[in-house]
């Protein structure tokens, strides 16, 4: 595909394997999220509509609350053992949890134990999913250079959207023909095993492997030959270990990851409840409706990633924001006057396509973290952002919309969108500073040889 055709065979294989693995991972992760309108009735006690909303919020947010712990665990593994090892482990965790969910008895059979069991599985899936996606994106950002890096990393997010779309499609197909819902989760477990095996073919990223090799040589040299022999190599690598994460970079990274969770929840979960309560949709009909939304969402993401062949990613994100700000201000009015499921679908589509997503700019955000802290910090901050926003959004909207109606959406959408905008502008300044520094170094390097040649003539 375009610029990716310039990659060598090994890198093309890595891109393909990571895309396939991410597709399979998100197929499993999003199965329950998109089938929640059906499965919550099976694994949680039935109650009044308000309590049912709280239970739905709990089942949804439990996937993301424990993501920070997963980020610390897999971040440590990724920065110590390597990127490859981490993505293999996370895919295997997803496979096991899918199998457990496929065999777990319902609330009617074993009572509250079913609720606890399904929640634990969702937590484990949330923990593993972040390590998988961040690991894949870091892997590709380290084996590629701009401009190839932008579409290569962006396609990982697109593969995740495709996995989400496929999970909705599979659920819709099975339920439409009256097949058992458990078959979808058995399928998810099977394809996760396939993804695990496929990823064992990956090699460690050269950038990470080279730094580890240099440190290992330095340490071994110190043991065998004394400090003097290893001093030069230690000096050349010590700054890498000591390099700090800038607080401003961490804050900006947090803000850019707060944007899309709000768009996703409102478009899929909040509007899904509107379909049930305002238009009398069954759970199966909501799944079918959201499948159409997921198809358009995937096409939109893929289009923006492909645009990075011609347009700088941060310019694309700023262009989307230009269209999104008027939309979020009008959203409460539009929802108050929505007259049909089709008109609601258009609102959902605009929200997920033009909302503040990190795609296709994620490659730019990641590389501004030090290499030996990249996995831990990038993963942990993204996890904190997801956990915070998903919990605040899912529970907050239950109460905010009860008091303010659809206008309560603005209390969450406006601050997160403004934060996303400020984060993008910060990374844009970082990129410009690097460009200026690179230009100055190039000029200096060009000037110095001329001076030496002049001196030689004398």
CATH class: Mainly Alpha
The succession of helices and strands, N to C, reads HHHHHHHHHHHHHHHHHH
- Using the alpha-carbon principal axes, give the shape: globular
Uncertain residue ranges? 227-231, 450-458
What name does CATH use for the topology? Growth Hormone, Chain: A
How many domains? The number is 1
CATH architecture: Up-down Bundle
**Count of individual beta strands:** 0
Task: Give the % helix.
Answer: over 70%
What's the Cα radius of gyration? 24 Å
Strand content: under 5%
Look at the structure and give the mean pLDDT: 79
Structural class: mainly alpha
Q: Strand count, sense and closure of the main sheet?
A: none
Assembly type of the shown chains?
A: single chain
Distance N terminus to C terminus? Answer: 54 Å
CATH superfamily heading: MFS general substrate transporter like domains
- Helix count equals 18
